[in-house]
């Protein structure tokens, strides 16, 4: 998890002078909003693992809100006055929170996610997927390079996408599994999901 966020932070810091209000790839959110959404995802995953007895049927009861109609519904927002550097710092901090929670959660801890109850390893894998694919979206908008480590992609595909093809390049396959591209023999998905339940509990 920490490695994925460090890669993302380095890529975002290379976007000097970029327009953060352009759309992030094919999303209807701006690059700024997408990074806020990513930070919020990482925070929310950490928060789900935080209570002594995490809820199994709902999210921890934070207040979620939107800055504009159609924008992401978040708990976490970055201060625009702090600029892109502040936004990236918020992402880095939320990534650190999830990393810490994953490292300290007991092996038997389970918590709610919309795609099913998961364990700490599953939440870490979800955080990695969110980071890799949303950086893909943002990199398209900002015009920066982004090709994450194939081994990292392979590990999250194996953990969360058991039906994904195995004989294909790992990064394009992760993009395919999250509805962001095609791979040979497999058309672009119009609906997709991952499976966060621990192995043996799926």
Structural class: mainly alpha
Strand residue content: under 5%
Percent helix, as a range, is 40-55%
| Radius of gyration, taken over Cα atoms and rounded to an integer in Å | 16 Å
- Count every helix, treating DSSP H or I runs of 4 or more residues as helices: 6
Compressed to H and E, one letter per element, the order equals HHHHHH
Number of strand segments: 0
Q: What form results from the Cα inertia axes?
A: globular
Largest sheet: none
Span from first to last CA? Answer: 22 Å
Mean pLDDT: 96
Low confidence ranges: none
Would you kindly provide a written description of the structure presented here, covering whatever features stand out?
This protein has 202 residues and is mainly α. The chain is built from six helices and no strands. The protein has helices spanning 2-13, 31-48, 83-104, 120-142, 150-160, 170-177. The longest helix has 23 residues, at 120-142. The two termini are 22 Å apart. The model has no long low-confidence stretch (mean pLDDT 96).
Could you give a short description of this structure?
The chain has helices spanning 2-13, 31-48, 83-104, 120-142, 150-160, 170-177.
Relevant terms:
single chain; 202 residues; mainly alpha; 47% helix; 0% strand; globular
Layout of strands and helices, then pairs:
Layout: H1 2-13, H2 31-48, H3 83-104, H4 120-142, H5 150-160, H6 170-177
